[in-house]
Amino acid sequence: GAGVSQSPRYKVAKRGQDVALRCDPISGHVSLFWYQQALGQGPEFLTYFQNEAQLDKSGLPSDRFFAERPEGSVSTLKIQRTQQEDSAVYLCASRSGRVGEQYFGPGTRLTVT
Amino acid sequence: KQEVTQIPAALSVPEGENLVLNCSFTDSAIYNLQWFRQDPGKGLTSLLLIQSSQREQTSGRLNASLDKSSGRSTLYIAASQPGDSATYLCAGSGGGADGLTFGKGTHLIIQP
User: Fold this and answer.
1) DSSP characters for A63-90?
2) What 8-state DSSP symbol labels residue B82?
3) Neighboring chain B residues of A105 at a CB cutoff of 8 Å
4) Among A44, A104, A110, A111, the residue to mutate for chain B (most B Cβ within 10 A)
5) Is A81 within 8 Å of B82 (Cβ atoms)?
6) Shortest Cα distance from A78 to chain B (angstroms)?
7) Which backbone phi and psi does B62 adopt, to 5 degrees?
8) CA distance to partner chain B, nearest, from residue A67 (Å)
9) Whole-angstrom Cα distance, residue A72 to residue A49?
10) Which parts of A1-84 are beta strand (E)?
11) Phi and psi at residue A110, in whole multiples of 5°?
12) Residue B88 phi, psi dihedral angles, 5° rounding
């Protein structure tokens, strides 16, 4: 079966532009997570969905970051007015239930110039 | 807030050696402990998950243990191969948070 997929794989944005990153979780997975990974660091938690409900957004670094999962499957992470410090790899993960193993997608590498 | 530390940051060993990667965490209320590998430019591949009620998990040449009382987990790799070269990350969940808290990883090189 297909794993977690993310698109685009690479995105270059000029400072100030808005970007939208997409995550397709494993079919039927209830839980979905977004993480941000800076170069040479471990991923850092951004936000968590259970079905369509965003239960935890404590890791979102600013109000420029917004995530949604309106139908409980595909999720979009939107960054408004991008800044250079937003340059990172954005990873999406899904989990079949409320507990257990998280499965990660390949990530989207965002470069803000 | 949970903090996860991995030692060493980098390790280079000849092929065939057995090795141990270490992970320590500050909050003993950890629920799950998951080990991943990450290849350059790629996402994370899950290796082993140790749930709260478990003390270790094994998969092939890999064995991971969890000691919540001491705040430590180890990943044991037996008979290392060049294909094991990657960055290994440990991550824990718990303390009311569903998201994983990651260490910075151990960059492992297995010399042919």
Assistant:
1) TTEEEE-TTSS-EEEEESS--GGG-EEE
2) G
3) 43
4) A104
5) no
6) 19
7) -105, 140
8) 15
9) 8
10) 5-7, 10-13, 19-24, 31-37, 44-50, 53-56, 65-68, 75-79
11) -100, 125
12) -105, 130
Closest residue of A to B42, CA-based?
Answer: A106
Can you say whether the dihedral through the CA atoms of B23, A29, B62, A37 is positive or negative?
Answer: negative
A77: left (phi over 0), alpha (psi -120 to 50) or beta: beta
Q: What is the per-residue pLDDT across A67-93, written as a single tens digit (0 to 9) for each? A: 999 999 999 999 999 999 999 999 999
The amino acid at residue A52 is: E
Task: Tell me which residue of B84, B61, B74, B63 sits closest to B13, measured CA to CA.
Answer: B84
Q: Which two tokens stand for residue B44?
A: 């994370």
* Per-residue pLDDT reduced to its tens digit, B64-77: 999 988 999 999 99
Query: Which of A46, A99, A108 is most worth mutating to test chain B (most B CB atoms within 10 A of its CB)?
Result: A99
**B86, amino acid identity:** A
